[in-house]
Write a structure and sequence with these properties.
Layout (H helix, E strand, L loop, with lengths): L7 E5 L9 H13 L4 E5 L11 H13 L4 E4 L3 H9 L4 E4 L9 H7 L3 E4 L12 H21 L7 E5 L17 H5 L4 E5 L2 H4 L7 H17 L4 E4 L3 H11 L6
Parallel strand pairs: 1-2, 1-8, 2-3, 3-4, 4-5, 5-6, 6-7, 7-8
Helix pairs in contact: 1-2, 2-3, 3-4, 8-9
């Protein structure tokens, strides 16, 4: 991990062969870390590379990477998956539902020492908002879910806020909170700006080069608000951009 660079890169690990044996998966994840992923994310959410993976695979990957000193996060709304991940050493759980999709999630958070990155989802679905109302609903949802985790015994320093998602699992306008990152940062918790492909595709043409351009733009935007982390699939260009921002300017 680059300790000088304040904004961490949370890399969504997408193995070239998801059905490869464990040793090959770990070797590929180590290379991914060496390419710049400060934290290797195992995305079990719908559409994620590890959606539907069995719990033994998650457990062995988390433990194997931890044994070689690589921090791991697991993206999930399932308390069972989260429990397996933290029991085997995951440093972070990323739950866009804010521990509302699975009623057992808060208990898992309360008994663990892992960090919890939460979004604003609510069991009550919201159909449409104007721009201002959307920002209010998003921040209100975050505040509500932070309060619930605090009630469950989770320390404030273990809570982070997920920025860049929509108001609910079905929201088609997942990009719209990007104009209000300052609102999220003002809540006082660390902020994770999500630059995964599903969000970037709503912002630009769906080709690899443009998606990477958008990811770099979000990384720069995130560092401007002091974001703790940027979550991306392709880490190389994002890491390069963040490193260049640290380089001293030449006086000419």
């Amino acid at each position: 991990m680059d300790l000088q660079r304040g904004t961490r890169v949370i890399g969504i690990f997408s193995p070239s062969a998801p059905d490869a044996d464990l040793a090959d998966l770990i070797r590929e994840a180590v290379r991914f870390h060496e390419d710049g992923a400060d934290i290797v994310d195992l995305d079990t959410l719908r559409g994620g590379p590890f959606h539907g993976a069995d719990e033994d695979t998650i457990a062995l990957l988390v433990r194997g990477l931890g044994e070689v000193g690589i921090p791991v996060s697991a993206s999930t709304t399932s308390a069972d998956v989260a429990s397996v991940a933290v029991d085997h050493g995951a440093a972070w759980i990323i739950d866009p539902s804010g521990a509302t999709a699975d009623p057992a999630m808060r208990a898992v958070a309360g008994r663990s020492e892992a960090g919890w990155i939460i979004g604003p989802w609510s069991p009550r679905r919201v159909d449409r908002y104007g721009a201002a109302d959307a920002a209010d609903a998003y921040t209100d949802g975050l505040v509500r879910n932070v309060a619930a985790l605090l009630d469950a015994g989770v320390r404030t320093d273990r809570i982070g806020l997920h920025a860049g998602a929509g108001l609910s699992a079905e929201d088609e306008e997942s990009w719209r909170m990007l104009n209000h990152l300052d609102r999220i940062a003002s809540l006082g918790c660390r902020v994770l700006v999500d630059a995964r492909d599903e969000i970037l595709a709503a912002m630009t043409a769906d080709d690899a080069e443009r998606l990477e351009d958008a990811a770099v733009g979000l990384a720069v935007l995130g560092t401007g608000i002091g974001a703790w982390g940027i979550r991306v699939r392709s880490v190389g260009r994002v890491v390069g951009a963040l490193q260049r921002m640290l380089e001293p300017r030449q006086i000419v």
